[in-house]
Amino acid sequence: MPDAASHLPAGARPRVLHVIADPRRRGAQSLARDLDRELRRRGQASALRALAPHPDDLGHPDAARRGGAGAPGGAPTGVLGPGRLHPRTLRALRAAARTADVVVAHGSGTLSACALALAGTRTPFVHVSPGDLRQRTASPARRLHTGALLHRAAAVTALSEEARAVLLDRFRLPGTVVRTIPNGRSADRYPPVRDAADRRAARARLGLPAEGLLVAWVGAVTREKRLDLALDAVGRMPDVRLAVAGDGPLRAALESRYECARAIFLGDLADPAVLYRAADALVLTGDSGGVPGVLIEAGLAGLPVVAPDTGPVRAAVQDGVTGVLVPPGDPAACAEALAKVLAREGPALAAAARAHLLPRFELGAVADAWQGLLAEVARPAYT
């Protein structure tokens, strides 16, 4: 893994505070955790705080497994207050920021809190835009509100060039403020499956059938993730099972609707790496304005992918070379692509995927870009 620490003098390594909306490990939270851990590994002072607990985790007996205890092998994530914009949360965030030279606000759920809590302070913040904001800012009022908050950031990062173009055009942000830094994951955490015995062991760990073809789906079970499309697609394939890793408001309805032995709902997994080793392919069906972390994780794990043909996804999946892209919202095309991958093309696609992703989305290269940006925008003299 590349290590930029030796190339940056101590004075160019400001103290960093990463802020996430809640302690779960998904989406923006995953990148924040990985980046925090990598910066600390490189000798840079870095801390991670969540604004508030997620409502689903309040009083939940498995809160640690659901993300409150941090990433596997990591320290628990400190929670600042009872709600994202609660006065107590904002005061705690402002106090925590005094010990940092720059704050990184990961995801849309942190933008308002950081803009409010850091107003009038000397500590700048960088906002990590989660993807294409057009859907989230469809109304003029929402667009004006979000734009005003974005203009308070010292820098805004986009996960793809397409997402950067939206930020520039829709919110009239200066070109020098908006940078493209892709999503990233540590290759060490997502090793490819070694052999059939390794795959069977991974399946046993998750309580999955030892034999037969298995497709993985990973994500929040929400409307925009379109788990129903994956269930429809696999429903057309009598010899294939679908393992669903994730939770959300639509889980109960979908689990009831598609109740059968071939759809296995695992709930949230603290570490999806074991599912990637257990599966024969991954299917992605949701709408995304960025490059989903699950595509990077699966590709690094040597798992062939079927995904919707959208601009940001094309940055991670080369159709016919590292995976198969299908028209969005088409379960029949998705089933056809899965059948092709599972029948004969999977191993070659998987090997090409890992080779394509390593120089572009591996955490080491992504952290290099982040260290340069953080040193550039941090408050002068790091006092």
Automatic annotation (TrEMBL):
SUPFAM superfamilies: UDP-Glycosyltransferase/glycogen phosphorylase (SSF53756). It holds the Pfam family Glyco_transf_4. Residues 47-84 are annotated as: Disordered. Residues 67-76 have a biased composition (Gly residues). Residues 54-65 have a biased composition (Basic and acidic residues). The keyword Disulfide bond does not apply. Signal peptide: none annotated. Keywords: Glycosyltransferase, Transferase. The keyword Transferase applies. Residues 27-188 form the Glycosyltransferase subfamily 4-like N-terminal domain. PANTHER family: SULFOQUINOVOSYL TRANSFERASE SQD2. This is Glycosyltransferase family 4 protein.
